[in-house]
Amino acid sequence: MRFHRFFSSAGLIALAILVLVSTLAVDTIFRGVRLDLTEGKLYTLSDGSKKIVADLPEKVDLFFYFSHDATKDALPWRNYARQVQEMLHEFELASNGKVKLHVIEPEPFSEEEDQAAEYGLQAIPLAQGGDPIYFGLAAVRTAGSSGDAKAKTALHTEIIPFFQPDRRNFMEYDIAKLIYQTGRVSRPKVAVISGLDVGGGWDMMTRQPTEPWVAYQQVEQLFDVTKLDSDVEHIGNEYSLLVLIHPKDLPETLQYAIDQFALRGGHILAFVDPYAEQDRGGMFGGDASRASDLGRLLNAWGVKMDTSKVIGDYKLAVPVAVDRDSPRVKHLAILQLTEKNHASDDMMIRNLESINMTSAGFLVPMEGAKTHLAPLLVSTDAAAPLDASLLDGLEDPSILMKNFKPTGEKYVLAAQVSGEATTAFPNGIPVKETKPDEKEESKKGSGKENDAEIQAPGAKKAEDAKALSDNKGAIAENQKKTGEIHVMVVADTDVLSDRMWVQVQKFFGQSVAQPFADNGAFLTNSVDVLAGSPDLVNIRSRGRFVRPFVVLQDMQRDAEANYQEIEESLKERLEATENKLAELQNHRDDKGALLTLTPEQQDTILKFQEEKLSIRKQLRDVQHELNRNIQDLQARIRTINILAVPLLLTIFAVVFAWVRRRKMRRSIGR
After folding, report:
1. Are residues 534 and 564 in the same domain?
2. 160 is in which domain, residue-wise?
3. How far is CA 59 from CA 118, 147, 150, 411, 502, in A?
4. What global pTM score does this model have?
């Protein structure tokens, strides 16, 4: 009887009231509590985001514009907007009053719409002929009271013109970066010396200007970047970081400036390369080599890199298509590094899932060096050095597989170098050698013999005279001979190029960068940490790129290893058979005329043709066997995915019905 009373009209009304009161009470008491069940906690603010808003020097107003009424028939856009608004609310709650959120409906021809347009937000139609909608964010650093936003004085403004669907997984980072850029009073200064057109240039082939690399643009957004020319003779302490990208053919005076900057404690991030695929020529001259290694500077820091070798890695090799009709083959020099290739838990690489490199070199500590080389990124034990010259004009990557034998050693692809180092210029400031005819002209012009001598500022006369006579250099009084250095070296420059990690698409006139690897985050993390502003590091890579089927990859790798030798042997037999067959079929006399084949030769040709067909069949069987186990596992996974959930739901429904029926029988029996 009690069971039936509970489901009477009065009981249901009482239950509804109880649920309503409980919901309101829970919503009030646990307003700040969030439960995030996603992998990686994508909808929970990271510690970096919380620190950014907590450390804001000035208050920041967030103006979120969304055309709610105009999207009544666009449910996905409304859901996306609700997700953005909830994330903005999380930032507001974590800021302790330093961030104020304003949600605004910019109705057509309203003052709010004019304000959105004034900020630079974009109105984009979702369908052809439809009304344009606003879906953007303006962050304003203000001074004044916390009341009316219009009464405040805007000190700095940053915007997200329109929330792109492709950037949904990076929403927290985009918002945190916006607040970070808006709230900072000043940006760290970063100097860049590059032998590649990272900031945009001119393509001689197409005779068109080229866009800046996306990774470089990201650094420019967060830091005060200055590009230094080759004639720089001094790098000041106002720079928090010096970034070197493919430092090739650097003049000695510039090398000396870098040397002294490092010994004074300046932080350096250097990207060197034994084979820079983006290099279209020499940096400051006509050197056709694609290598850069900083020469004596790298050695003075206790590191060396063989510019004639690149790293090949069978386990990390990326399959590439040679042509449409051929199967994909592994390119030993194009590597996809994962978290397994992290040699440490450093902030620069923490949470980075995928970093793509190509024709990378490897770093080795020099014997007797006082500095310490701490690896950041390493290869697997299925790696070995390859001659860089093999990459010249390479069309078929399978050529790299011939005679490739892994050494079992893990090679260092990126590392931090720290400790006490000695100057690479013990004789002082490099002085250009003056030709005899130039000396005579100088003497005639000045009328004084001693005018031909060049003295460095603050140089000691006796030491300078000897140094200059030997054309070695001039010793400056303030030259650093030794010092503690803080250098990060990456043995690849192509890791920064767009093709290795990002696709750039146009979206209503905007360039939208859609990453498929973490290369950009790797650069920006490194600059953040070395320049002393690591708050964004923990957020940058929260969007997930790589979710590999590890079991499938391991099975495929094992299968390839098992069948590779058989396949190579069959290919060699096939090639030898085809050569013998061609030799017999094209047998000619001394005058070049085809000879008549004897019956024995004709039988031999038939046997060779049959053997050729047999070998080709064996090759196909090997290739089919290679994929059979993988396809069987894929079929099992599909079956589980299709049947598992319906089966579980059916079992749950049967059990629930059985339990409910038992309860009803017990209540009736009472």
Report:
1. no
2. 41-183
3. 21, 12, 14, 48, 34
4. 0.64
